[in-house]
Specification:
Distance between the termini: 38 Å
Shape: globular
Number of helices: 0
Radius of gyration: 13 Å
Order of helices and strands: EEEEEEEEEEE
Oligomer: single chain
Structural class: mainly beta
Length: about 120
């Protein structure tokens, strides 16, 4: 079972970007899928969570700008990022915990750079 991120890149301040996390098997095998980010020299920060039942949670720093959603048919969780700021620059990681076993899985990360 693997998680693979895609969709990172370079965007100007105020712009939008969608990053995706695709599971190698059913995304519903996870009790929750999270997006973390880590900026240079900073600790890894939880940005958004979507639970198996569909409940979503967003960090205060991204509320009103980011949206997390899940496409079960494509085994994918999306993080739509709007009104991007310089401080959103980071490597974004997908993370999930398996139902029952609670085993934790991480993707390899995707770089998001907000720069003019």
């Amino acid at each position: 079972l693997k998680l693979v991120e895609s969709g990172g890149g370079l965007v100007q301040p105020g712009g939008s970007l969608n990053v995706s996390c695709t599971a190698s098997k059913s995304i519903t095998l996870f009790s929750a899928v999270n997006w973390f980010r880590q900026a240079p020299g900073a600790q890894r920060e939880l940005v958004a969570t979507i639970h198996r039942g569909g409940t979503t949670i967003l960090a205060d720093s991204v509320k009103g700008r980011f949206t997390i959603s899940r496409d079960d048919a494509r085994n994918t969780v999306h993080l739509q990022m709007n009104s991007l700021k310089f401080e959103d620059t980071a490597v974004y990681y997908c993370n999930g915990r398996r139902v029952i076993s609670n085993a934790e899985y991480w993707g390899q990360g995707t770089q998001v750079t907000v720069s003019s």
